[in-house]
Automatic annotation (TrEMBL):
Keywords: Flavoprotein, FMN, Oxidoreductase. This is FMN reductase. Signal peptide: none annotated. InterPro entries: CE1759_FMN_reduct, Flavoprotein-like_sf, FMN_Rdtase-like_dom, NAD(P)H-dep_FMN_reductase. It comes from Agromyces salentinus. Residues 9-159 form the NADPH-dependent FMN reductase-like domain. SUPFAM superfamilies: Flavoproteins (SSF52218). Pfam families: FMN_red (PF03358).
């Protein structure tokens, strides 16, 4: 009897603005650990990575005109078909980046339902780590996604030499990746269908009270 190999699809979204980017570095570390953990369980993983800065103009055009150019459509389709999402944003002014939120706004309102999400964030100071729980996690919960318990925040000092933060960051990355892998391994989104009566306005317009515009 020949065994079958399960394949899971993970989409990685990084909204860092610089090159190189600590946001992308954190996304890559989270992805590597998640793929390794799933691989150890005999699960193959297909990974697609999207840098939102490369899609910034397309995201804006979608918000203004209501349609997605091909590159953005590819990213939106990938999210809708994914078994798990790793989403990493820099923290600006105590919350997620505007580009990150704009991308979430153009995702179909049903696309994140029951989708495991591993949240990552980067910033200059550890004080902004709370943004994961008061800003980013509620956003995904509102959209019926399943954010893992451990969100991973990396301050500038976490990437330096020495200090407790440097030693604990790999531990936090692994813990978050393990929780994410547990959900991805168990999830089955193959039967999800889009709601034909769903509103076609971006969720940000609804949340922000702009539904009538």
């Amino acid at each position: 009897m020949t065994g079958t190999t399960t394949t899971k699809r993970i989409v990685v979204v990084s909204s860092g603005l610089s090159t190189p980017s600590s946001t992308r570095q954190l996304a890559d570390r989270l992805t590597a650990d998640a793929v390794s953990i799933l691989g150890g369980r005999g699960i193959e993983v297909e990974v697609e990575v999207f840098e939102l800065r490369d899609l910034a103009h397309d995201i804006t055009n979608n918000l203004l005109l209501g349609f997605a150019p091909p590159k953005l459509e590819q990213a939106l389709d990938a999210v809708a078909r994914a078994d798990g999402l790793i989403a990493v944003t820099p923290i600006f002014t105590t919350s997620y980046a505007g580009l990150f939120k704009s991308f979430i706004d153009v995702i179909d309102s049903q696309a994140l339902t029951d989708l495991p999400v591993l949240i990552g964030a980067t910033g200059g100071t550890p004080r902004h780590s709370l943004a994961i729980d008061y800003a980013i996690r509620p956003l995904f919960t509102y959209l019926h996604a399943i954010p893992v318990t451990t969100g991973v925040y990396a301050a500038t000092s976490d990437w330096g030499d020495g200090g407790d933060g440097v030693r604990s960051l790999p531990d936090r990355i692994y813990r978050g990746a393990r929780e994410f892998a547990d959900l991805v391994a168990a999830t089955d989104r193959s039967n999800l269908v889009s709601d034909p009566f769903a509103l076609d306005r971006p969720t940000g317009h609804l949340i922000g009270g702009l539904a009538g515009e």
